[in-house]
Structure formats: structure tokens, C-alpha cells
Amino acid sequence: MVKRLIIKLIIEVGSTVAKSFMKAYQQTAKQSGGKAGNPFTEFLNQTMQAANLTHKPMTREEAFKILQLVPEKASPEDIIRVYWRQFHKNDPVKGGSFYLQSMLHNAKCELMKDFADVNEKEILEKIKKEGESQKGDEAEQKDEAKVEEKNEEKKEN
């Protein structure tokens, strides 16, 4: 467990440093007219592109596909509900994937840009309460079923 966390930390820090280096390089290239002056610069550009460190932001279409939502029917509640459910299904502790969780998070962030005035925390609390009440209802139904079974057993005896 600790090894995984250390490896993830090293990868994320390395990726962040590489991205920062790339941004600084791009700014310098823009200031100098954007022309590659030496072979090292061309090699660096090719390497960064091959390593996919020139990350493109997620598109709305990709976000809808990831969350499996239809653009015309997507409401903030639907976005957060699907995000919350899928995010917890893909929990690495439960055998899920950190990569999928990050994709789900990025998709939710992309789609919620359209609903800047919506308070995500309120919606999430509402969803959690609904989930708790559903669990409570299910528990009550199970208890009632057990009581009925016991009553039937008593009648048979």
C-alpha cells in the first residue's frame, strides 16, 4: 500500500515537473518568435509530444461519453449523481482504478462549467441523504420480511 502511494507520488511529481518545464519552454519559444533554433529544441518537442505531456483538455463530448449522459437531458443533479456513483465504484481500495476516477472527475468538472451558479455541495448532500433514506427503506423492508417469515413459521408449527 505504501509502495503504491510512493510510486504514485513520484509519478505525479515527475509529471508536474515535466509539464512545468514544457510550459516554461513554450513561453521561451513564443518570446523568441516560436522558431526552433537548434536540433535539441526539435528533439525536445518531439519527445514531449510522444510522451503526451502536451495534454489537451477534455472536450464536452468526451465528458458526456465518460459519464454516459445525453447532452440534451443532462442536469447538474444527473451529472453529480452519476459522477458520485461511478467515482465510488472505481475506488482503488475496492479494486477500482485511480485513472478512471481522475477521468470521471475531469468529466464532471468540464460539464459543470455550464452550471457555474449551482452549488455542488448542496446537490451532493441531497444525493447522500437520498442514498441513506433508500438504505433505511431497504433495511426496514428486510426487517419486515424477517418478521413475516417468523410469523409464518410460528403458524406452521
Number of helices: 6
User: Structural class of the helices, strands and pairings?
Assistant: mainly alpha
| Rg, alpha carbons | 25 Å
Look at the structure and give the mean pLDDT: 77
- Major sheet details: none
Q: How many DSSP E strands?
A: 0
Task: Please provide the ordered H/E string of secondary-structure elements.
Answer: HHHHHH
Helix fraction bin: over 70%
Q: Report how far the terminal alpha carbons are from each other.
A: 54 Å
| Percentage of residues in DSSP E strands | under 5%
Description:
Keywords: Membrane, Mitochondrion, Mitochondrion inner membrane. Its main location: mitochondrion. It comes from Paramecium primaurelia. The model has no long low-confidence stretch (mean pLDDT 77). α4 (76-89) crosses α6. The protein is mainly α and 157 residues long. The protein is elongated. The protein is built from 6 helices and no strands.
Characteristic key phrases:
single chain, 157 residues, mainly alpha, 6 helices, 74% helix
In brief, what are we looking at here?
The protein is mostly helical. Helices cover 74% and strands 0% of the residues. The N and C termini lie far apart (54 Å).
List the helices and strands and how they pair.
Elements: H1 2-31, H2 39-50, H3 60-67, H4 76-89, H5 98-112, H6 120-156
Helix pairs in contact: 3-5, 4-5, 4-6
